[in-house]
Amino acid sequence: MYSTIRKVNKLKDSLAYHFCHGLIESKTEASLVQRKMETKEEAVNENGESSRTITDGSICGHQSLHHLLQSSLSPQVFKEVSRLLIGLNCGKALEPLTVVETANGLSSQHDFDIQAFRFNADKELLREPRIVRVGLVQNSIALPTTAPFLDQKKAIFQKLKPIIDAAGASGVNILCLQEAWMMPFAFCTREKRWCEFAEPADGESTQFLQGFARKYNMVIVNPILERDLKHGETIWNTAVIIGNNGNIIGKHRKNHIPRVGDFNESTYYMEGNTGHPVFQTAYGKIGVNICYGRHHPLNWLAFGLNGAEIVFNPSATVGELSEPMWPIEARNAAIANSYFVGSINRVGTEVFPNPFTSGDGKPQHADFGHFYGSSHISAPDASCTPSLSRNKDGLLISDMDLNLCRQLKDKWGFRMTARYELYAYMLSRYVKPDFEPQVISDPLLHKNHL
User: Fold this and answer.
1) Annotation marks residue 179 as catalytic
2) Where, by residue number, does the polypeptide cross the bilayer (predicted)?
3) I want to staple 103 with a disulfide (CB 3.0 to 4.6 A). Which of 166, 187, 266, 311 is the partner?
């Protein structure tokens, strides 16, 4: 796995280097001029060569790797590169959907990226297609983190309203927002005052979204910072599932909490206690694997064993730490577990009033890094959508035929060949204090040779 990540990272670095240095010709002189206009700084690398640095979160002036390649390669070459990067759905290139005029208008008026695609399944003789329209929302915060907390939250609500309206106008059945969407991702600071953003599962963020759920007959996954009023006001990282009638179906709390870099989340909340619930909605069975849980294959597996057809991964992650992993982990989970995965990441750089450190030897700093957006959807047949913008708000819409889940189970037989009893035995031994690894040593390894 790690060798694959290194190869992908090297490929991205190589592409970015060559594009930024103009070694790969763009299609038009205008695109070269545009890239120069969006270049913010110029530095000198260790070889004494000029290296441009983009500071707006783009990739050499482009919103995504997909856009960079599309604008710079011939149509024939781009088609082949896309086949390798995002795969084929039922043997064909992923089909784009036409975005309705109302949604396009909202996108233009409020400056957010909007893209739409369709995942097909093979036609069956005994089952009708089970088409579900899913939407993912990524966004930056709306006000500086120095603004009054209530103003910050209200501004985020207002910012999301036209994006959710665009999803509703597009007929989205299930909509998922990003992790802790109703606040800055302030858990890097370790300052407890940010706990004021926590709210009950049925609090104001849920109430805000319930109106949209009823208006658009839409299931909404609402990831919040939860305050459990019945259990000592304990705080959790929680996803509240709102039904298409505006009711609360249930909730899931984040299973795995990071302790890496600036992700100081365990200062605020600990590992969840809700297991791996799958929610039967009007449109299908869904699970929520919150953020850091995507690094744990068994977490993905458990949602699959409980019957999930779509698993959402609402996240908040930054480029320096995780971007090489981002297009790999969710796609691998979709393949291995024969379900769809919706990956959502927030956008922008959030600067906090007080500098902080995280015990990793880095100088004090006031921001987490760049949240690189790039939300996308992965299918069980290894195909995936292009990503949303790396540096702007966005709405990704996708039709998916849930019949594809069972078709891929039948094709690959992963469940049938999984040997769960073998791993259950191994894990039952591993969690015991007297566990001994099964290591067979070469008997000649420690002998002296003349």
Assistant:
1) yes
2) none
3) 166
